[in-house]
Amino acid sequence: MKIVATLSELRAARAVLPEPVGFVPTMGFLHAGHISLVKAAKKDCRGVAASIFVNPAQFGPNEDLAKYPRDLPRDLSMLEAEGVDLVWTPTPEVVYPPGYQTWVTVEKLAAGLEGDSRPGHFRGVATVVAKLFNAVQPQKAYFGQKDAQQAAVVRRMAKDLDFPVEIVICPTLREPDGLAMSSRNTYLDPEQRKAATVLFKALSAAQSLHGRCERDAEALRRIMRETIQAEPLAKLQYVSCADYDTLEELTTVSGKALLSMAVYVGKTRLIDNFVIG
Amino acid sequence: MKIVATLSELRAARAVLPEPVGFVPTMGFLHAGHISLVKAAKKDCRGVAASIFVNPAQFGPNEDLAKYPRDLPRDLSMLEAEGVDLVWTPTPEVVYPPGYQTWVTVEKLAAGLEGDSRPGHFRGVATVVAKLFNAVQPQKAYFGQKDAQQAAVVRRMAKDLDFPVEIVICPTLREPDGLAMSSRNTYLDPEQRKAATVLFKALSAAQSLHGRCERDAEALRRIMRETIQAEPLAKLQYVSCADYDTLEELTTVSGKALLSMAVYVGKTRLIDNFVIG
Fold it and tell me: Which of A22, A185, A272, B83 has a CA between 20 and 30 Å from the CA of residue B141?
């Protein structure tokens, strides 16, 4: 496994990878969710590249950039064990050198939900993904459904800007009790960790209500809201029942919909989602 | 010469071009300036692609999109005569299909000068160039110095977003009396056409003053302003003496600088520039 830091090293190493190249962009502190993306890339592609970069541009001024968990040696050995060919670990100065001033914005999809709570977040995501695509030039790129709005923004950005990259969205991996895997789960103390299953419970309750033919979106939002509010350690930020493609809030669920939520457990902000219909 | 309209036709035709591929993006109604870009691409590259697309996103609501001059048959025969291999002539619906919502912005370089007079113009330029790069995937792309701020914005955008494309800026081509070639010159009546040489005269006067060791930027702006104001058919919009790279207005000219201006002659807005130092 080749590990490179600069853009020119990356371009040289990329040029000799067998194609198609599958690419897994990450912010490191890898868990089984990331590894499932790598496994999907290995299955589809002759060459597999990954990146590890905690992207400052997608963190707000009051967010957890400095304390975002990092463990590069562990990440690298996990990627090596999966047979990854190339890992790019750029510094912030490589990605955003002095004078940097170009931004990619996806307008409607980046508004609402996470975009409301995290102004500028999706501008940072869309920009870094565009840069990573140009740097790595993969044929396929792999993202997790866990970050549902990010997946929608990246799909839209790649389509709108005509990137010759197929976007593959892989299912959310979960702990045995249903908690979606996330690098941020490491912030939770044992009591909070138990309480954090309330997101899965709330989504499951709404899914089950939908399964019993409830088509009123507000009823689905209500059962999620009530489930979260019944957990004393959880503080709801939003619940949503939105169109799967446009992410616009629904009145009536007819086709494919996204149930999603953001919840604080202590100081840790967790998100999760189910696709229904 | 292959002429294609859809993105999938373009990708198929691009895939069989010999590399390196040189690319000349245009809005059509070609003149000798465009052809000089094609000749430069032919000289450098084994395959040459061009695009003809009057990009609605770079026209303001009060600008001349509808009456922008078009002559596709003539353009195609000019490109064919130069030995271009592939021409993409997409419709606006191909470039901006329903639901389109992704924009590329270059912040500081797009403010001031043309950016002040034409809000949103460089967002439209940066976005369409990013799309064209992803669609055509050239190794080199050719732009004219005539649109100096556009050249700076495109260079910055390509660098910031890590496009694997070398940006080549070619000199402005001029009529025998000095008027910079532009598709918009066609709007001028014979009297206006004569008056339009005032841009070249003003730039030449400032260049000559700089050649006599004048380093005060305001003195250079003043002589340009006064030259334009002496022409009754011309109405000055702005003059600038700015840093070549950052486009920030200078107080003192020490290194490479850009003299530039926008002038109305009748209803026609003309721009021109000289690089000095």
Answer: A22
- How far does B13 lie from chain A, in Å, by closest CA? 14
- Are A160 and B108 an interchain contact pair (Cβ–Cβ within 8 Å)? no
Cβ pair B137, A139 in contact under 8 A: no
A189 in reach of chain B (CB within 8 A)? no
Q: What are the backbone angles phi and psi of residue A155, rounded to the nearest 5°?
A: -60, -45
Distance CA B70, CA B35 (A): 16
Assess B106–A contact: CB distance below 8 Å, yes or no. Answer: yes
**Which of B11, B135, B162 is facing A134, going by the closest CB pair?**
B162
Q: Given a cut of 90, is residue A36 above it in pLDDT?
A: yes
Burial class (CB in 10 A: 0-12, 13-18, 19+), A30: buried
Look-up of token digits 């500028």 = A120
The pLDDT value recorded for residue B64 is 85
- Asked if A8 is an interface residue toward chain B (Cβ–Cβ < 8 A), one would say no
Asked whether the predicted pLDDT for residue A64 surpasses 90, the reply is: no
Helix (H) or strand (E) holding B107: helix B107-110
Q: pLDDT at position B126, please?
A: 98
- CATH architecture designation of domain B183-270: 2-Layer Sandwich (3.30)
Q: What is the pLDDT of residue B155?
A: 97
Confidence of residue B86 (pLDDT cuts 50, 70, 90): very high
ipTM of model over 0.85? yes
pLDDT one-digit tens code per residue, A115-174: 999 999 999 999 999 999 999 999 999 999 999 999 999 999 999 999 999 999 999 999
| Strand-pair category, A102-106 with B102-106 | antiparallel
Report the pLDDT averaged over residues B205-225.
98
Q: Do A105 and B102 touch (CB under 8 A)?
A: yes
- Residue from the list A102, A135, A161 with its beta carbon closest to the beta carbon of B106: A102
Q: Any CB–CB contact under 8 A between B21 and chain A?
A: no
Homologous superfamily of B2-170: HUPs (3.40.50.620)
Concatenated DSSP letters for B41-78?
Answer: HHHH-SEEEEEE---GGGS-TTSSTTTS---HHHHHHH
Residue linked to tokens 């009790």 = A177
């007819």: which residue's tokens? Answer: A254
Domain boundaries, chain B: 2-170, 183-270
Tell me the per-residue pLDDT of A146-155, one tens digit each, with 9 for 90 and over.
999 999 999 9
Contacts of A137 in chain B (CB under 8 A): 164
- Per-residue pLDDT tens over the stretch B236-266: 999 999 999 999 999 999 999 999 999 999 9
Beta-sheet strands, E only, within chain B: 2-4, 21-26, 47-52, 86-88, 102-106, 140-144, 166-170, 234-243, 257-265, 268-276
Owner of token pair 């496009």 = B163
